[in-house]
Amino acid sequence: MTLVAAIQLNTCADLAQNLADTRALLGEAAAAGAKLAALPENFAFMGAHEADKLALAEPDGGGPIQDFLAQTARELGIAIVAGTVPVAVPSDAGRVYAASLVYSSAGRRIARYDKIHLFDVDVDRGDRVERYRESNTIAPGEPAYVVVPTAVGALGLSVCYDLRFPELYRALAQRGAELLCIPAAFTDKTGEAHWETLLRARAIENQCFVIAPGQCGTHASGRRTWGHTMIVDAWGAILAQRTDDTPGVVLADLDFDRLRQVRSTLPALKHRRL
Fold first, then answer.
1. Which fold has domain 2-265?
2. CA–CA distance from 27 to each of 18, 81, 214, 217 (Å)?
3. 145 secondary structure, DSSP code
4. Which of 110, 159, 204, 234 is 20 to 30 A from 195, alpha carbon to alpha carbon?
């Protein structure tokens, strides 16, 4: 059994406050014995306007957010999946990459995945329509399948809206992923309808654990996010979940013997013909 943590946050427009809140919850996860902790999308900053994050864009490899992550992983002795970090696009000052970065417990960065599917969506709330256009301020990453060995197994990376594209997760499973990480800032409307269903589907169809840390509550822009951070096993069972609308730590033990049993007794991945 291996203990992992998913961190739920209500990120605001104050970078220093967000990093302090993140550090406290990561410390709680490490004190509980977690070997890996995953942070939600936009864990370090959610401003009043989407373009506000451009001022925090960091060059790849260094900056206040990346330095914080490396130092915290090293000090706490815990691997960190850093939701998303705004990494500068060298050829486009008006957009950033939404980069999901992984740090080992020694503080060394061991993987980067740039979100490839962008949330350009109109959310119908009945009395109004909320318009989201991530592509205005985020550059899509080059299509990539990132699977990285970690202290808790082979980890496949993705971000939020990627959840709706099952072909990505099948490719990660084919490349050896045992654990799928899906940091998110789902809207409350789409989260209520689809979050749990999609997470459990990705776990079941790929016979992988899923760790899904989310944003919760109301943010500086007025946007409301769904939260319901959860960890799901390879059979689709929810191992742990946060059901209230507040920040906190979700902990679960991952039983890799159980994962191997699921894959062996119901070998759907081996039965694929298409």
1. Nitrilase/N-carbamoyl-D-aminoacid amidohydrolase (3.60.110)
2. 14, 14, 18, 22
3. -
4. 110
The H or E element spanning position 263 is: helix 256-265
Residue with tokens 């967000």: 18
Each residue's pLDDT tens digit, 202-255 = 999 999 999 999 999 999 999 999 999 999 999 999 999 999 889 999 999 999
Residue 45 neighbours by CB distance under 10 Å: 21
Measure Cα distances from 133 to 61, 81, 110, 115, 226 in Å: 27, 25, 30, 14, 19
Catalytically active residues are 41, 115, 160
Report domain extents, the chain. Answer: 2-265
Q: Which is nearest to 225 in space by CA: 69, 43, 84, 33?
A: 43
How far, in whole angstroms, is CA 90 from its chain's centroid?
24
* Tokens at 112, concatenated: 């980067």
